[in-house]
Amino acid sequence: MAKKKSKIENESLDVFLTRIHGEGIIATADKALPPRKRDVLNTPLSLDIALSGGIPDGTICLITGKPKSGKTTLCLELLRNAQILNRPTFYINIEKRCTPSLLSTIQGLDPSKLQVIPHQIDKPLTAEDYLNIIERIAKTQKKAVVVIDSIAALSTMTEQEEQIGSNKDMAGPAKLLSAFFRRAQQVVDSNDVILIFISQMMTSREPRGPKWMEKGGIAIQYACSVWLKVTWIQQWERNAETNAPDGHDMHITVQSSALGRPLLPCILPLRYGVGIDVVKDIVMTAENLGLIEKAGAWYSIPMFAGDGDPPKFQGLARLSNFLKDNPDKLKRLETEVRDIVLPKETDNAKD
User: Fold this and answer.
1) Do residues 43 and 59 make contact, with C-beta atoms less than 8 angstroms apart?
2) Are 166 and 231 in a shared domain?
């Protein structure tokens, strides 16, 4: 005679999961994945367009590129934008690249509101220390924006205790990062934190494929929702007075975006001693959309015409100076560009 099954053996999957893990463990997709509005951290205008709106909360972001291409400067611009929104900002200064002189170049960035780690300690921090600190920030500081500069400088405890060259475990930092992302992903999402990792490039030994590859392993490429790669830079023409260029253009490819399609290009103007030239970026984008007209060396802005002729400026420098002196008009021009190019819902929030 067959044995009767116990009540536990006969219970449904829903009842079983609820009994073991508690209420809310399982639901249908329409209830488990409801539309969720998220705030979006804006980037410079042309990059916002390439990203289809910016960087949403709960995002892990990766910025890669060759040396001196402008990765750190771009990250400081993002921290400045976060401070405008009164968000907690942190800079994990592993490479000691963040200096007072560099911070002073970013207009509007408040050093008194930027937390820098480490400050003054006798013992150098290991990769394990840094990752534990980052995880703690993500758990306790809601809506924080954290820049980690950089993955390539992470040194494990084993590496620091041994002689230089004696550590054979070259994949140590990559293994730690893989474990970190397995633990931190849900915390970053639930607390609306944005983690921005900077990674260096190294030459690839493979005879086929790309000549350059990112340091730090592949785990972060799986974990990140936003991946920006500075593919190359183009120096500006030399200044006649200094006989040196005043900046360069950062040619960026959006490898992945949390809000839109991937592989869109972007060019950001970086002016030495100033940071991202936001005015030039807006002007170039507006000109491409026909909001600024150019005839030879003369520029005009029809939307500012009013009842008379539109204002005209000889040369890009005079137009830029006019917009700098009239921030209300600069903001109006930027808003017009965003209204044309970006979906309405991504200006401040994303479902």
Assistant:
1) no
2) yes
